[in-house]
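Quick check before the chapter quiz. The format below is the same one you will see on the exam, so make sure you can read both the input and the output lines.
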Amino acid sequence: MPKTKEELARLIDHTILNPAATPKDVERYCREVLEYGFWGVMVNPFYVSYAKAIVGNRAKVMSVVGFPFGATKPSLKAQEAEAALNDGADEIDMVMNVGAFKAGLYEIVAREIKAVASVVHDYGGILKVIIETGYLTPDEIAKASLLAVESGADFVKTSTGYGPRGATVEDVAIIRKAVGDRAGVKAAGGIRTAEQAIAMIKAGANRIGSSHGVDIINTFK
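Here is the expected output.
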């Protein structure tokens, strides 16, 4: 459990995935990552090389694949991941095919995660799989979490922020119980304060994704 602002900052992916974000906006987030000591900056694929040029090796650069709906062909998700990694991304947050999962097409979901995991791990990167908990029942959250980890995910992530709702403490607890210590858990979606972030961490999250990283740190007591 983080006891200082610095410890909490190291658990935060400072996120700017707004489709209207400009280079100036992305630069501000990158500068905030360096100022506050966040784990890294999460940007859309277009901005990976730009962000990398700013933060260098002082922080991680992360990007998204199949974002925000996950309804992209598996081969294209793998290509998108490789492009981001070539541009300098250290970590990839991939949206699983939620519709395929809901339909019970688990082999399709597993195959796409394995394809992206293979590429990411070949580059020495980290793969987080977004299961979009707002569309899932508790049982489905647990099943999707296990499927993701068994297919190569390093983290299971709750939400994109563009689904029906963001992360909840209950979501995080279900994911952590399902995966145990086999993978990390990233809570994202609607987290704006230190109180919310700490609640997610207590429930089992060891990474927080938020576009309000500065607000989280400034409300930490």
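If your answer matched, good. The chain has a mean pLDDT of 98.
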